[in-house]
Specification:
Chain B: Residues 1-65 are annotated as: Disordered. The structure holds 2 protein chains of 2 kinds. By secondary structure, chain A is mostly helical. Chain A folds into 3 domains: 2-78, no CATH class; 89-217 and 326-407, no CATH class; 224-324, Arc Repressor Mutant, subunit A (Orthogonal Bundle). Chain A is 60% helix and 6% strand. Chain A has 20 helices and 6 strands. Chain A has a 3-stranded mixed β-sheet, with helices on one face. Chain A has a two-stranded antiparallel ribbon with strand order 1-2. In chain A, a hairpin with a 2-residue loop joins strand 1 (2-3) and strand 2 (6-7). The longest helix of chain A has 26 residues, at 326-351. Chain A is globular, with a radius of gyration of 23 Å. Chain A starts with a strand and ends in a 14-residue tail after the last helix. Chain B is low in regular secondary structure. Chain B is built from 1 helix and 3 strands, in the order E-E-H-E. Residues 1-15 of chain B have low confidence and may be disordered. The chains are: A mainly alpha, B little secondary structure. At the A-B interface, helix 4, strand 3, helix 5, helix 6 and helix 9 of A face strand 1, strand 2, helix 1 and strand 3 of B.
Chain lengths: 421, 65
């Protein structure tokens, strides 16, 4: 990226040409390079005004800013309001679904069922609400079709492949994921066999999600600061730059590098108990560690792609949890089956869909949680991420299978290559 | 855990869900155009992909129980 002391951003700009083309944006390659060059000049000026000591090197900072500028430009030019009148089928089909089953209905029903009502009353309650969801499956499948059609128009096999390419997941890694599912499921189930739970309730479709983390003792960590200090024993860079990390509460967990201040904003979920907030923090602080280490050395962090970023984070999280508490490590792997279950459900829906979805949901749940015996699970509908973050779980499930199996030293000797699926 | 006195909703989401949504080129759905762009630039965790654990703090198993 540096040539004769000059930071080259042309190559970065060219990486986005295909995205502009896929989305029918009229910008030429020269236009994109122009955006990059202009942002490069601004970023160099901004960098000089940042207070020291700086986390990012000049090169890493400039390249990050250039990618951010281009991604923002694409976003601003392509984002559209979800509307039933839209000519974009992905937008109109989603609007149609949300008209009959609004997000508030999905969330309120889930809250009533899984938080407010005792387990014994949940089935009865669901039966009173079920008619409101009568059209969900048909309309959801229309949303799925529209995304697949959009992906095909852009040159991909389907929306699954679109995501795999977007997240920079290597083909052989996806093949490894598919080939090692059974071993992974067996291994994760093994880790939680000692955790005592009421299986009938735990594996019921009327339970929100089996949570092994809450079913046994947990790490004795009381605050974000305490956790940061603990992680800093292995990753001193965290303590060194402690003042550059802000922690806040939000709807989801995320980490963001703030180019304005050369600092990090870590967000953890406000609606979960402190154990899950701690796990959110371990994951997000791991992103911070990697970004601090990489960006101080001039690395192009955004350019790595989500797969590599999440894989590196997962390796840190697994290593630390194993060190802090083998029991919590086991429970964490048990909970990983929830991500896997959602990923496999969506994979099946986007690629096959021959079955009724409540049956499919139950079948995949039983495959993931050994000993479960669901017949049909219509409550899959209450997972708003099916609509708001489609296939988001797939990346994490792929990363989990690879890193957990590697950590458990149970790698298949031959990782096959080939096309996706 | 996180200091509740600090800025809330660090992901830029508007406070009221009025039924208006935005869809990005990669089909992710957001509450504001700004949030849709932000999502491309942040590193999320997998912990928000399911209905999730709803255990309240008093219901978790502790060593004292």
């Amino acid at each position: 990226m540096i040539d004769n002391g000059q930071i080259k951003v042309e190559q970065v700009a060219h990486e986005y040409e295909s995205v502009y083309r896929e989305n029918n944006l009229t910008d030429s390659a020269e236009d994109i390079v122009l955006i990059a060059e202009e942002e490069k000049r601004s970023a160099i000026e901004r960098y000089g005004k940042l207070p020291g000591p700086k986390i990012a090197s000049l090169e890493a900072y400039v390249v990050y800013c250039v990618r951010k500028k281009i991604i923002t430009d694409i976003g601003e030019k392509t984002i559209e309001k979800v509307s039933i009148n839209s000519s974009n089928p992905a937008s109109s089909s989603l609007a149609e679904l949300l008209q009959s089953t609004p997000k508030s209905l999905l969330e309120n029903t889930a809250e009533e069922l899984f938080v407010k009502l005792p387990f014994s009353e949940r089935k009865k309650y669901w039966k009173t609400k079920e008619p409101l969801f009568a059209d969900f499956e048909k309309k959801y499948l229309k949303v799925v079709d529209s995304k697949n059609i959009m992906a095909v128009k852009k040159g991909y096999r389907d929306y699954v492949e679109f995501n795999l390419v977007n997240d920079k997941i290597p083909k052989e890694t996806f093949q490894f994921f598919l080939a090692n599912l059974d071993k992974y499921i067996e291994y994760c189930n093994e880790q939680v066999k000692e955790i005592v739970v009421k299986k009938d309730e735990f594996f019921s479709e009327y339970s929100s999600a089996p949570c092994y983390i809450c079913a046994q003792e947990f790490l004795k960590i009381k605050s974000a600061d305490e956790l940061l200090e603990l992680m800093a024993a292995d990753y001193p860079v965290l303590r060194k730059n402690k003042k550059k990390i802000q922690v806040s509460l939000g709807d989801g967990a995320a980490t963001k590098y703030m180019t304005e201040t050369d600092s990090f904003l870590v967000t953890i979920r406000k609606k979960v108990n402190s154990r899950h907030q701690i796990l959110d923090l371990i994951h997000e602080f791991s992103h911070v560690i990697l970004m601090m280490e990489d960006m101080s050395k001039g690395a192009d962090y955004l350019g790595q792609g989500r797969y590599l970023q999440e894989k590196n984070v997962s390796e840190i999280v697994l290593r630390l949890l194993k060190k802090y508490s083998p029991k919590v490590y086991g429970a964490y792997l048990g909970n990983k089956l929830i991500d896997l279950q959602i990923a496999l459900f969506e994979l099946e829906v986007y690629r096959n869909t021959p079955k009724k979805l409540p049956e499919l949901s139950a079948e995949i749940f039983n495959k993931c949680f050994l000993g479960a015996n669901q017949k049909e699970n219509p409550l899959y509908m209450l997972n708003t991420y099916l609509l708001f973050g489609p296939l988001k779980s797939l990346l994490y499930a792929i990363v989990d299978v690879e890193t957990v199996m590697s950590s458990a030293n149970k790698l298949e000797p031959n990782m096959k290559g080939g096309d996706f699926g | 855990m996180a200091d509740p006195g600090k800025k809330q909703d660090g992901d830029g989401k508007k406070q009221d869900d009025d039924g208006t949504y935005y869809i990005s080129a990669d089909q992710r759905v957001s509450f504001t155009p700004q949030e849709a762009v932000e999502k491309s630039l942040q590193f999320e965790s997998s912990s928000g992909t399911g209905v999730g654990c709803n255990q309240s703090p008093e219901n978790v198993v502790t060593p004292d129980k």
